[in-house]
Automatic annotation (TrEMBL):
Organism in which the protein naturally occurs: Candidatus Marimicrobium litorale
Protein name as catalogued: Transglutaminase
UniProt-listed InterPro entries: Transglutaminase-like_Cys_pept (IPR010319)
Domain of life: Bacteria
Pfam families: Peptidase_C93
């Protein structure tokens, strides 16, 4: 991945990719909870939040981890995707992770406002209260303690879940989410698939 990082983004990105790969190697020896902390911290401290039009010049783009590290900027989808892929590479089973589209209650001048947001949810067991990895609130908390978030749908490579459903509404996320399908294709081309 270093050659690709260098040719697309230059030496600074190669250093960040090296740090990422070392972090993933180190995470493989950690408990799942510590893996979550490390993945969350890695991206929340190294990547700056920015909207897609500022980063990519288009309204909505789902970036691979390499693209995120190359630009050094990401929106909430990119943070969730980077953490998802990092945790899978560190040995967390994809069935325990869901990239989750939520309505987030954010403070604003006229009072709290609902806005579209994406987080990564980790399920220690199938029916557990998931832990939420977020780029806005960096402390990892159970979903039951995140009253500011209302889940709309979650997905991973195995399916799509609507709201807080325990069973997937679809087991074909690539056919339902074109941005997810495109992201997986690009990640595979980068050697992550």
């Amino acid at each position: 991945m270093q050659k690709l990082a260098y040719s697309r983004y230059g030496p600074e990105t190669v250093r960040l990719v090296d740090e990422w790969e070392a972090a993933i190697e180190n995470m493989q020896r950690l408990s799942h909870e510590d893996k979550l902390i490390e993945a969350n911290r890695f991206f929340n401290t190294r990547i700056q939040w920015a909207q897609d039009p500022d980063t990519w010049g288009r309204p909505d783009y789902w970036a691979t981890p390499l693209e995120t590290m190359g630009r050094g900027m990401a929106d909430c989808e990119d943070f969730a995707i980077a953490k998802y892929i990092t945790l899978i590479l560190a040995g967390v089973d994809s069935s325990q992770l869901r990239i989750t589209y939520v309505k987030a209650q954010l403070p604003s001048e006229g009072g709290p406002a609902l806005t579209a947001h994406m987080v990564l949810a980790y399920y220690p067991s199938a029916n557990a209260d998931p832990l939420i990895l977020d780029n806005l609130i960096t402390e990892i908390l159970p979903a039951s303690q995140r009253s500011d978030l209302t889940p709309v749908y979650g997905f991973n490579s195995l399916g799509i879940w609507v709201g807080g459903a325990r069973n997937p509404a679809s087991r074909e996320p690539e056919s339902r989410l074109s941005r997810w399908r495109d992201l997986l294709r690009r990640a595979a081309e980068e050697g992550l698939g």
